[in-house]
Amino acid sequence: MKLVLIQSLGIWVLFIVLTILYAGNGLAQVSGELGEMDRLEQQAEEAIANGDPEGAALSIGKAALMANILAQKEEHQQTRFLYQAAETLFRGQEQGYRAFALFERAGGQPPASKGVCQYLSHAAEKVKQSKNDLKALEDFANKPLRDRQQRHIGKTQEWERLLQGLQQDLSC
Question: Which residue spans within the chain are E strands per DSSP?
């Protein structure tokens, strides 16, 4: 019993020490914020897969806030523009999820209300703006940033098709 208690106490002490060391490093905070942005983006995808567009909108909205924070802290201009384009993409997705939530609350039968169509229109504008901004960036020498740029470009293309299809299906 004492051995288990000592081991548990040792693990907690190690955890606290590592947390303090990690939190003390400014770079660790940025990677933490980047990790949080990615986690929120994934959480939004899981929420929509589980039929929760309001939860998805909330999560992707928080991811947009994290992208904004990252952009404000970034000193390298091209990376800052990447985070700004990600924020725009996430805001477009948020509008799309909100449109879907509103459509469901209104009964889920086409034609969609004017409010739903406006949300979809705003979403399409944001996604298009993000795609244009992402494509205007030069390719990154840094592989993780280049991969992020390409992943976001792919998402903008998926969302453009999705939003166009929704506007047609919902008679907007």
Answer: none
**Residues comprising the chain, all counted:** 172
DSSP H or E run through 121: helix 114-136
The pTM of this model reads 0.80
Q: Please give the Cα distance from 32 to 19 (Å, whole number).
A: 12
Which residues, in sequence order, are CB contacts of 22 under 8 Å at separation 6+? Answer: 28
Tens digits of pLDDT across the chain (172 residues) = 444 333 333 333 333 333 333 333 333 344 689 999 999 999 999 999 999 999 999 999 999 999 999 999 999 999 999 999 999 999 999 999 999 999 999 999 999 999 999 999 999 999 999 999 999 988 788 889 999 999 999 999 999 999 999 999 999 9
C-alpha 29/C-alpha 14 separation (Å) is: 19
